[in-house]
Amino acid sequence: MADWSAMILIGQYDSPFVRRVAIAIRFYGMQYEHRPWSVFADADKIVQFNPLRRVPTLVLDWGEVLVESSAIIDTIGEWIGPNAPSCRGAARSVATGSALSRSRRASPTRR
């Protein structure tokens, strides 16, 4: 059986795609190690796991690497099983909502 606590999520939470994956992992009650590496400053570290140097990257305990947030979330959902609740909509809403709230805080207010 897989040791889900040995998963490693690579990428910073300021990325909505990394947040979506983190939300999905937590939604299903799984544990993971987070490495908040930047695709700019830490590209040399990321390339060891993902030659495209993209985030999110999820490294599984047996060495397999998953990329692209939708594919990662779909794969996790398949592992959990067909009777598990889907978190796709929730992850998308939370990630998008927090991105929108950040952009609104950053934009000047109209008077």
Write a structural description.
With 111 residues, the protein is α+β, with helices and mostly antiparallel strands. The protein has a single domain, classed as Glutaredoxin, CATH 3.40.30.10. 42% of the residues lie in helices and 11% in strands. It has 4 helices and 4 strands, in the order βαβαββαα. The chain has a 4-stranded mixed beta sheet with strand order 2-1-3-4, covered by helices on one side. A hairpin with a 5-residue loop joins β3 (57-59) and β4 (65-67). α1 packs parallel to α3 (69-80). The longest helix has 19 residues, at 88-106. Mean pLDDT is 80; it is low at 107-111.
Task: Please tag this protein with its features.
single chain, 111 residues, alpha+beta, Glutaredoxin, 4 helices, 4 strands, 42% helix, 11% strand, globular
SSE layout and pairings?
Elements lengths: L7 E3 L5 H12 L5 E3 L7 H4 L10 E3 L5 E3 L1 H12 L7 H19 L5
Parallel strand pairs: 1-2
Antiparallel strand pairs: 1-3, 3-4
Would you list the SSEs in sequence order as H and E?
A: EHEHEEHH
Q: Kindly report how far apart the N and C termini lie.
A: 59 Å
Structural class: alpha+beta
Name of the level-1 CATH class: Alpha Beta
CATH superfamily: Glutaredoxin
Largest sheet data: 4 strands, mixed
Low-confidence stretches: 107-111
Radius of gyration: 15 Å
Sheet with most strands: strand arrangement:
2-1-3-4
